[in-house]
Amino acid sequence: MGLDRRGFVKIVMGGVAGTLFTPVIWQSLDDVSIWSQNWGWIPRLNKGEVKAKSALSKLCPAGCAVKVKTVGGLPFAAIGNTANPMSKGGVCPICTGGAQLMYSPARVKSPMKKVGEGKYEAIKWEEAEAMLVEKLTPLKGQDGKIAAISGDETGTANEVLSAMLAGLGSTGFYVMPGEMFTATKGVKLMGGNGQPGFDIEGSDLVLMIGADALDSWGTTVANQKAFAATRPTGGAATAQYIYAGPVLNNTASVCDKWVAVPPTAMATFALALANQLIAAGAVSSAADFGDYKALVAKYTPEAFEAATGLKADVLKDLVAKIKAAKAPLIVAGASFGQGAGALDFVAAASLNVLLGRVGQKGGMTLLGAAPKAIASAADRENAKDAGSFLASVATGKATPGALLIYEANPAFALPQAAEMAKAMGNIGFKVSFSTYMDETAALADLILPAPHPYERFDDAMNPYGVSKPTYLAGKPVVSKPVADCKDPVDVLLAAAAKLGLSLGFDTYADVIKAKATALGGDFDALAAGGIWNGEAKGGALTLGAGALAKAVPVKTDEKAVALAPVTRLAYGTASLATPPANLVTLRDTELVGKDLFVQMNGATAKKLGVAKGNKVKLTSGSGEIKARVHVSEGVAANTVAVLLGFGRSAWDEFTKGKGENVYKILTVSDEAGTGLKVWAGSTVTVAKV
Amino acid sequence: MKTQFSVAKFDQKLQERWGEVMEEKKQCKGCGGALPFVIGFVAAVIAGWVLFPDLIYSKKTQPIRFSHKVHQEQGMECSSCHTFRDDGSFAGLPNNESCMQCHADVIGTDPAEVAYVEKYAKTGKEVPWLIYQYQPDNVYFSHKAHESFECKSCHPDVGKTDTPPVYYENRLSGYSKQTMKMWQCERCHAENGVSNACHVCHK
Amino acid sequence: MKAKEFNIKWGMVIDLDKCTGCGACMTACQVENNIAPMVDASNKLRTLSWMLVYELSNKKAAPDAEIAYLPRPCMQCGNPTCVPVCPVIATDKNEEGGIVSQIYPRCIGCRYCMAACPYHARYFNWEDPIFPKGMEKTLSPNTSVRPRGVVEKCNFCHTRLMKAKDKARQEGGNPEALADGAYMPACAEVCPTGAISFGDIKNPEHKVHELAKGENAYRLLEKLGLAPQVYYVSKREWVRKLGDNYAATGKAGAEKKHS
After folding, report:
1. Chain C, nearest residue to A33 by Cα
2. Mutate which of B198, B200, B201, B202 to disrupt the C interface (most C C-beta within 10 Å)?
């Protein structure tokens, strides 16, 4: 008996039918459907205990006191530290995405040396450190041969850098331009000493002249917290906030009033307000009140109207509000955090003197020099600016042989950036201590990767804007850095030792601990999220009349319009390109694809003969950029506003080649009477392309 | 040669073929009928219920032969290692940090302990334990909310075992055989009057 | 249609007079919910922004122009339009607290819910999430990573609710009566001006209970009758008017006309 075809078919049919009564098909279908829910290329979540560790997140200029949330030891998010008075639980948009920045594609993964134009080779740390020592050795003892630029305003690293340079016989320590630099010079012009502070928290009328205090100026989060405290949801506001500046920016959006002052008329506005305040009876006991009074007499309401395009009623209204306030405060600053001259600062800050608000609660304060960790370090108020330095390198006046660049991006974030980058070419050996592959690192001969804030010890002394001496410190959150990096200060201290110079410390951690001790603080308490505060001082300031008298009113070309660069903290800082996690916050009226938008109000657009969507060219004495027009009524008269921080040529695919670098068209001029470089009053011509 | 078509001849051929077919049919009776179908049916059912469940899973053993028995004999409680943290989350399996409180160095004679100390404790690598109840990322399971149940109502009762049970991994889905399915969760929730809303279990 | 009611109503009250539009909430949301960064994030048809900050303008010429920023999470409507249109019940409003829930693996990507949502709060994954190399190590444990082809939206960081309940249980408290502030979505937690208040709108011990009843409180597109659980507050009338540009009266409280 054999099995024929017919029988076989029957068995198969029986088998198929039988299978239907088993789990084979049903379970397989179920399993396959479950399998299809977990594709291999979809990343899996990390498991483990969730913890929160205190950290000092110096991704934003002021530094946020945060708690870094980790899962199984891996950081994944940052939340505010409710116990820290600087953050009170808030976090700025940059520090919010801090964990993601640890793995930014732009991170420098190991030390690299330049082997050709735009070509780099990864090297070992031993080789890198030996190279640093070898290049510095012949320059030792010659003034001006070794220079350093720091982009960190608050870290004690600056003490190490300047002390190291001093020990090697050089005075070439420079800082990137910022409010702190200009304001400290401004205070000097007013006969004072120290860094100015602003007690926003204690004031009931905050008039911000230029200073974008609720988004990108000073200790942003602390300012925002102070503002929020006066605005209980559903309740009555207990303080007024007024913003005077060229753009209806984030700060102005929540203010009770926006005074649309073109960037070329900021000082005029302040002095015209002084004029009206004096007219309304304001008297100051300052020695130069008489001169000041005579000086501001020129800034009549008519002059104000001509310079700003606003009605003089605005001034009257402001005077009434200031007179009615118990603790008015004028916060002086540049609308994009830099480039205004010391005189712009003096003009605005003199209002605090005029109103008798210096050293008062809710007024302007002065922060004296903090005790140093390293005695031979340069004093902060004697800082020199990197822009002037590179300008003299360009002309051959300065001829450094080596340049150390610490956490700074001068090739991108200095005005007339293209010329600055070119000037750097004149320096034989450039070392960039940078966490990310920025435009400056891309020009350096040696790139030494620095740790991310969660991977390092760091500190912040008196972040600009604080009303009383303030010190924060932090230690690493993770046990091992993601990249093969070393703390720049550790590297510098080791190099100094090899050059025969001892600064008394081996590591940055020790320097910071010494700094904390010098202040009378406790490092461990600080690293656990604490804060150290000193007492704020007043001080007899003059009205700065002598300096103001030298100010030359900005001449405006009929065809040109004022350029108002706009900073938004979420889009990055001078030393940080827009982080990947923040890109989504960009509006499609600011950047589309690779096109940056230039914003202007309807009247300005009409005057310039351009319309929404037009491609235009903005030309200044130092270069040109292309952009598309977006008509927005949130821009002052005869002014065009463009976002700062785009047009990156290095970094990563998230930012590279998007938009244009507005720093290129900021034109630097010398400020009469102070010799400072200013570029806040840059003008451009706009033409359709 | 020329072939002449003839109706009669064709008819005869047809008749002959029909006879053959009928003959074959008779022969088939012995092995025919429904029997092959039944054989196929039964074989498939047996294969489907007996062989398939075995074939669909691959067998895996834990990286370390962990003996719960030995640890219990030392007077340790389940909760000594399988603890709730202060935030109410469940620690699940202990990590090196906990294990090394005792096993930073070899303290016994069991080769499994030696293997643990050398391969994991000394190297700092966490033990890749196989989780019998592994759930995917889109599931949020709160041990705290299920605290009133006995562990063994969902987990294998390993408390007294000297060798951990074999881990069966589904060759298709990649999940453990003991991974609870959504319908099981839902049934228990329904029976106990607990919400079956999506986000009660999903994230 | 009657809105679904629960004993607990998790809700937000967003004070538009305090929102500076800084974007910290959006970033915190991206981080918490494992949204992969997009290279061209200016293509707003492709981005996934569960929390999105809109810019509102009073449409007046400079210098009288005013702007306001409006953060828009999912409204968690009492009467959600997205739920009944879902052919596979991948989204539902069926949980105590009223958060509109969703199971990603069940979603078939038909996008009916996106079409139905008047707040544009739902987003479709046009592409698989691609994180820069290594960045997957910073994934938050709180949200599963969604593949291409599914719709997603804000869920008030629901896993945080589950964790808050676990914490309450651990501490011997009542997980169904969480204290004010015990459960906070990432956006509300990080907001530097505290513009976003969050809590149980029905619980008098939570501050949102009163805030949602404030005279300047309103909800977006009240006329549609979707009963959102997100409230906005602004003293500026033009801002409130924009919140319900279909409302006949243009005044806050227009809901009373439509039930």
Report:
1. C105
2. B198
Neighbours of chain B (3+ CB pairs under 8 A): A, C
Domain span including residue A12: 5-35
Q: Is residue A66 part of a domain?
A: no
From C104, C163, C166, residue closest to B138, measured CB to CB:
C104
Minimum mean pLDDT range among A355-364, A544-553, B5-14: B5-14
A627 in a structural domain: yes
Residue A163 within any structural domain of the chain: no
Distance from CA of A608 to the nearest CA of C (A): 16
What are the sequence ranges of the domains in chain C? 10-257
DSSP H helices in A372-438: 386-395, 410-413, 417-424
Fold of C10-257: Alpha-Beta Plaits (3.30.70)
Q: Comparing A331-340, B65-74, C199-208, which segment has the lowest mean pLDDT?
A: A331-340
CATH value at residue A245? 3.40.228.10
What pLDDT score was predicted for residue C259? Answer: 30
pLDDT given for residue B119 in this prediction: 93
Tokens of A183: 């304001």
A297 in any annotated domain: yes
Across the interface, do B88 and C101 touch by the CB < 8 Å criterion?
no
Q: Is the pLDDT of residue A408 over 90?
A: yes
What is the complex's ipTM, to 2 decimals?
0.94
User: Which residue in C8, C139, C170, C174 has the most chain B C-beta atoms within 10 A of its own C-beta, making it the best mutation to test that interface?
Assistant: C170
Gap between the Cα atoms of A135 and A404, Å rounded: 11
- Number of domains chain A contains: 3
CA distance A175 to A386: 5
pLDDT tens, residue by residue, B139-148: 999 999 999 9
**Contact check, Cβ <8 Å, C132/A75:** no
Is the minimum CB–CB distance between C9 and chain B shorter than 8 Å?
no
Chains in touch with A (≥3 Cβ pairs < 8 A): B, C
C254: tokens are: 């227009």
Q: What is the pLDDT of residue B26?
A: 59
Q: Is any Cβ of chain C less than 8 angstroms from the Cβ of A582?
A: yes
**Cα A661 to the chain's mean position, in Å?**
16
**What residues of C are in contact with residue A259 (Cβ under 8 Å)?**
63
Pick from A367, A382, A404: which residue ends a domain? A367
The b/e string for C38-66 (b: 16+ C-beta within 10 A; e otherwise) is: bbebbeeeebbbbbbbeebebeeebbebb
Give yes or no for B124 touching A (CB within 8 A).
no
Which pLDDT band holds residue C257 (cuts at 50, 70, 90)? Answer: very low
- Cβ separation of B199 and C175 shorter than 8 Å? no
A62 and A465 Cβ atoms separated by less than 8 Å: yes
Give the DSSP H/E element, type plus range, for residue C101.
Answer: strand C101-102
Q: Tell me which chain A residues have a C-beta less than 8 angstroms from the C-beta of B34.
A: 10
Chains meeting C at 3+ CB pairs closer than 8 A? A, B
C92/B203 Cβ within 8 A? no
Nearest CA among C151, C139, C9, C143 for reference residue C82: C151
- Going by C-alpha positions, the residue among A544, A217, A185, A225 that lies closest to residue A383 is A185
Quickly state the pLDDT bin for A170 (edges 50, 70, 90). Answer: very high
Question: Distance (Å, rounded) from C-alpha C131 to C-alpha C36?
Answer: 5
DSSP B121: I
Closest Cα to residue A180, out of A215, A153, A150?
Answer: A153
Residues A445-480: b if buried by 16+ CB within 10 A, e if exposed: bbbbbbbbbbbbbbbbbbbbbbbebbbbbbbbbbee
CB pair distance less than 8 Å for C63 and A39: no
Task: Give the count of alpha carbons within 13 A of A48, CB side only.
Answer: 20
Separation CA A227–CA A232 (nearest Å) = 10
